[in-house]
């Protein structure tokens, strides 16, 4: 037990083979110390707290990592592996600690009371509460050596690999975290760049920046703001982020609510259906709205109840029917000749952070017979899960055509933006039958297809794969247009901090601001 505790604090036990003491195992580096710790542990009533306190207040634990005696660290020295602990070993945080540190620093971590059901990987709770999905692991946990859950691991591997650096530097996930970090700093310290830099260092590294670091950071922010301003960052055209959707090949478009409905817009076309139609997509919802407002998958509508159009969406947590259920809103002419909205609910509840193939096959009403929308939901993470089908009648006969663009992941008006991933969106004329739907299969255009958007880089992420050429016309996103160059520059600076070794590693510095430290403060 005490050897395991020592391993936890120092990265390696006094006996390196933690689970296999014996003649064939490696001898302890300090056998007398190991015996004394074991005896003390028993004498103190098997108190783990007392043993933790004893170790972290020891002179050995309080040593600096950066020792001035460089000869001690040379390969040809008497102790090249630092088994005798002449200085404190630099240690990398474990996978769960890295994920939790990112969420805590950026202000996203939900410190809810302990217990309750496990949560998906996109829910910002501590990693100990996260579900383990073998075929769709959390990216951070996966690359930073998380142990397999089905075997006992006395000591985790600690590797240094290119995928780790590439994930931190290039992934859209880390860019989102950097923007959240910058948003937190802007909200808590809006008065000056210097206050934001000081707060950023304190949050990320648990210390104030040195004078040289503060000056370099302020110079970076100034230069970055000038660079962004010169590029016309607030008016430039921006594409969308792309990531792999779990259980799917290729990439999907990553959509955020603040992108605006015109971020992925397809201009009005004579080929767009004015009668029966079918809309399909593969989706993964990260969140839904806390109110009754919907998150739109696709729409040809402004969101105004007195204007014609349609929208395919997910309901919010406070929906009058069910939360996280598919809904088709059609605003048009009804059987009685009136004009207005009809919200058609599927009552099929979707789980957040899980990929689905969804579809709505719309057959319009006639003067003598009601119409019908057939909703399809297929769980792409579980082949054994049966296809869910819901048939819902409605009274709309038509009249929903308009000159607006078709918006993917939003509406032409404000609000209603999707939050998650969208892939393989297909719009077809006619109410397709089940055997004609994609439902997660490889997307292909047919004679009834008026638009198929797959978001792959070749031939173009904005290309319509159908013969109609209804390509996406990229526009500035709402987030880009609304953000100031200062916040964008701060997000870039925050991204740098989240990539720093000091953020990922536990290092005991010898001094801070010229003062000798009796014991370095660790980031929990």
Task: Describe the protein.
There is one protein chain. With 524 residues, this protein is α+β, with helices and mostly antiparallel strands. It has helices at residues 2-10, 31-43, 48-56, 95-105, 139-143, 162-170, 172-188, 193-205, 211-230, 478-482, 485-498, 501-504; strands at residues 91-92, 241-243, 252-255, 264-266, 277-285, 295-300, 309-314, 325-334, 339-349, 355-363, 371-379, 388-394, 396-398, 406-408, 420-429, 449-453, 473-474, 505-506, 511-512, 515-516. It folds into two domains: 91-234 and 483-506, no CATH class; 241-479, Jelly Rolls (Sandwich). It contains twelve helices and 20 strands. Strands 2, 3, 5, 10, 11, 12, 15 and 16 form an eight-stranded antiparallel beta sheet that branches. Strands 4, 6, 7, 8, 9, 13, 14 and 17 form an eight-stranded antiparallel beta sheet that branches. The chain is elongated, with a radius of gyration of 28 Å. Residues 232-238, 477-483 and 511-524 have low confidence and may be disordered.
């Amino acid at each position: 037990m005490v050897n395991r505790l020592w391993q936890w604090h120092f990265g390696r036990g006094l006996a390196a083979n933690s689970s296999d003491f014996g003649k064939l195992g490696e001898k302890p580096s300090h056998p007398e110390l190991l015996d004394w710790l074991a005896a003390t542990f028993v004498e103190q009533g098997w108190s783990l707290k007392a043993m933790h306190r004893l170790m972290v207040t020891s002179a050995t634990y309080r040593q600096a990592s950066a020792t001035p005696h460089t000869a001690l660290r040379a390969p040809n020295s008497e102790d090249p592996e630092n088994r005798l602990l002449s200085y404190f070993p630099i240690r990398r945080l474990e996978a769960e600690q890295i994920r939790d540190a990112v969420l805590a620093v950026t202000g996203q971590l939900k410190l809810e009371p302990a217990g309750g059901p496990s949560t998906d990987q996109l829910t910002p709770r501590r990693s100990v509460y996260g579900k383990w999905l073998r075929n769709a692991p959390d990216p951070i946990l996966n690359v930073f050596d998380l142990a397999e859950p089905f075997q006992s691991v006395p000591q985790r591997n600690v590797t240094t690999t290119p995928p780790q650096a590439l994930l931190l530097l290039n992934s859209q996930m880390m860019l989102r975290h950097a923007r959240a970090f910058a948003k937190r700093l802007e909200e808590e310290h809006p008065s000056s760049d210097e206050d934001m830099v000081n707060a950023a260092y304190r949050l990320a590294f648990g210390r104030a920046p040195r004078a040289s670091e503060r000056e370099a950071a302020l110079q970076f922010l100034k230069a970055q703001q000038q660079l962004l301003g010169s590029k016309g960052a607030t008016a430039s055209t921006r594409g969308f982020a792309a990531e792999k959707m779990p259980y799917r090949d290729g990439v999907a478009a990553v959509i955020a609510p603040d992108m605006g409905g015109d971020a992925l817009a397809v201009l009005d076309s004579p080929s767009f259906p004015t009668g029966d139609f079918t809309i399909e997509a593969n989706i993964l919802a990260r969140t839904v709205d806390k109110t009754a407002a919907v998150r739109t998958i696709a729409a040809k509508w402004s969101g105004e109840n007195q204007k014609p159009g349609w929208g395919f969406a997910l309901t919010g947590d406070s929906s009058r029917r069910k939360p996280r259920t598919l809904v088709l809103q059609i605003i048009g002419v009804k059987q009685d000749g009136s004009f207005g909205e009809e919200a058609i609910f599927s009552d099929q509840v979707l789980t957040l952070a899980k990929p689905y193939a969804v579809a709505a096959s719309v057959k319009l009403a006639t003067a003598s017979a009601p119409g019908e929308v057939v909703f399809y939901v297929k769980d792409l993470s579980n082949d054994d899960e049966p296809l869910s089908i819901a048939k819902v009648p409605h009274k709309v006969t038509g009249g929903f055509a308009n000159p607006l663009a078709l918006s993917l992941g939003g509406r032409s008006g404000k609000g209603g933006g999707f939050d998650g991933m969208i892939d393989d969106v297909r719009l077809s004329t006619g109410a397709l039958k089940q055997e004609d739907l994609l439902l997660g299969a490889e997307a292909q255009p047919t004679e009834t297809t008026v638009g198929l958007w797959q978001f792959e880089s070749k031939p173009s992420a904005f290309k319509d794969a159908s013969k109609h050429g209804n390509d996406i016309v990229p526009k500035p996103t709402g987030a880009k247009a609304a953000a100031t160059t200062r916040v964008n520059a701060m997000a870039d600076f925050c991204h740098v901090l989240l990539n720093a070794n000091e953020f990922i590693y536990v290092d005991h510095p010898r001094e801070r601001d010229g003062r000798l430290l009796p014991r370095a403060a660790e980031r929990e």
